[in-house]
């Protein structure tokens, strides 16, 4: 290989965040440190997922989390790794995790300025089959004089300063975006132990004929949702029907949708009138990624997902997110029913 073929100017996540911070003269470096701890959580979770079948980490932990889901052993380990990384950063005051009923406060760091919401291992029902899962995170900056209680997190997604996810698939892919910024994708190079910028400025295609939804719930769907999905499957005037793709791990379905275009939906329905996915650590952070990549995200009332305010930390919502034109179709079907 000629030396010109080797990239010697590799952009790691740490370098990327450092360069971003340099653009803001008021920056203190706290966010860079927080990102460093986030990365460590992703790397260690990736490591245990990869080794799970070998070191007896498949199966249930024998407990259920706050929302009644059975916890997998890896749910517990992922949660512990994430909490410990956030605590260790010394920059996080508050942490909400899908696996913890109450908000966690790190009182040893009363001056820490960030609040984080996370789903440490989303899609964990897929774990034992070796299917991709992921970690989702949302980062909020506490207001000056904030009390450091859960009320500081019951805010609309528009208040987030950064969000993203890591998908543990054939490789670990980290997608991160900051308020008003671009979406950037990094791949974990396991030999370097570094996330490397491989997908700069990700833009979602404006449209694509792929839909991703658990159609097994269609019995419970509201009319507009039924009509919308039927229109994709039975197009008029000889159009081609859409392809269906549903992994059942939102992070993996979202990552594909971001790259290829299309739409991912988990609508509220007659059985789950508030939807299934949680606002703070599933819907809102994903919505920020999709919007910043040029897509759209709305709830089941066709409100902008980022403006939905959770009533409590584990509050749920319906969600439709993806390519602008695909989400617009859903909105149009709902308008006809008003
Ligand atoms: P989890 O947080 O308990 O893993 O649940 C969230 C997951 C999402 O990743 C996925 O999109 C959805 O639940 C799948 O739900 P269903 O099995 O109802 O289709
Ligand atoms: Mg989840």
The biggest sheet amounts to:
8 strands, mixed
Low-confidence stretches: none
For this structure, the quaternary state is: single chain
Percentage of residues in strands = 15-25%
Family: Belongs to the FBPase class 1 family.
Protein name: Fructose-1,6-bisphosphatase
Catalytic activity: beta-D-fructose 1,6-bisphosphate + H2O = beta-D-fructose 6-phosphate + phosphate
EC number: 3.1.3.11
Defining traits:
single chain; 338 residues; alpha+beta; 7 helices; 17 strands; globular; binds magnesium ion
Structural notes for this entry:
Helices cover 29% and strands 25% of the residues. The protein has seven helices and 17 strands. Helix 4 (223-233) packs across helix 7 (324-335). It is globular. The termini are far apart. The model has no long low-confidence stretch (mean pLDDT 94). Bound molecules: 2,5-anhydro-1,6-di-O-phosphono-D-mannitol and magnesium ion. Magnesium ion binds at residues 98, 119, 122, 282. Its EC number is 3.1.3.11. This is Fructose-1,6-bisphosphatase. Residues 204-334 form the Fructose-1-6-bisphosphatase class 1 C-terminal domain.
């Amino acid at each position: 290989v000629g030396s010109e073929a080797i990239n010697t100017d590799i952009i790691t996540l740490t370098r990327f965040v450092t360069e971003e911070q340099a653009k803001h003269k008021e920056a203190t470096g706290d966010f860079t440190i927080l990102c460093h701890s986030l990365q460590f959580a992703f790397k260690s979770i990736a490591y245990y997922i990869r080794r799970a079948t070998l070191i007896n980490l498949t199966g249930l932990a024998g407990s259920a989390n706050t929302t009644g889901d059975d916890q997998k052993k890896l749910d517990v380990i992922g949660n512990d790794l994430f909490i410990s990384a956030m605590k260790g950063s010394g920059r996080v005051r508050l942490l909400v995790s899908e696996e913890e009923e109450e908000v966690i406060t790190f009182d040893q760091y009363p001056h820490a300025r960030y609040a984080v919401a996370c789903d440490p291992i989303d899609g964990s029902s897929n774990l034992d089959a070796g299917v991709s899962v992921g970690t989702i995170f949302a980062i909020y900056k506490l207001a000056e004089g904030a009390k450091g209680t859960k009320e500081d997190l019951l805010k609309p997604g528009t208040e987030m300063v950064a969000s993203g996810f890591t998908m543990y698939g054939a490789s670990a892919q980290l997608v991160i975006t900051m308020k008003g910024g671009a979406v950037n994708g990094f791949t974990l190079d396991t030999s370097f132990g570094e996330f490397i910028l491989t997908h700069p400025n990700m833009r979602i295609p404006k449209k694509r004929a792929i839909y991703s939804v658990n159609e097994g719930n269609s019995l419970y769907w509201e009319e507009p949702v039924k009509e919308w999905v039927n229109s994709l499957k039975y197009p008029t005037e000889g159009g081609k029907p859409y392809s269906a793709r549903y992994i059942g791990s939102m992070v993996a379905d979202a990552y594909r949708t971001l790259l290829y275009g299309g739409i991912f939906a988990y609508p509220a329905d007659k059985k789950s009138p508030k939807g299934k996915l949680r606002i703070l650590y599933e819907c809102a952070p994903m919505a920020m990624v999709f919007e910043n990549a040029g897509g759209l995200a709305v709830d089941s009332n066709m409100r902008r997902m980022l403006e939905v305010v959770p009533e409590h930390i584990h509050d749920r919502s319906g969600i439709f997110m993806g390519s602008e034109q695909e989400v617009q179709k859903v909105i149009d079907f709902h308008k006809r029913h008003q």
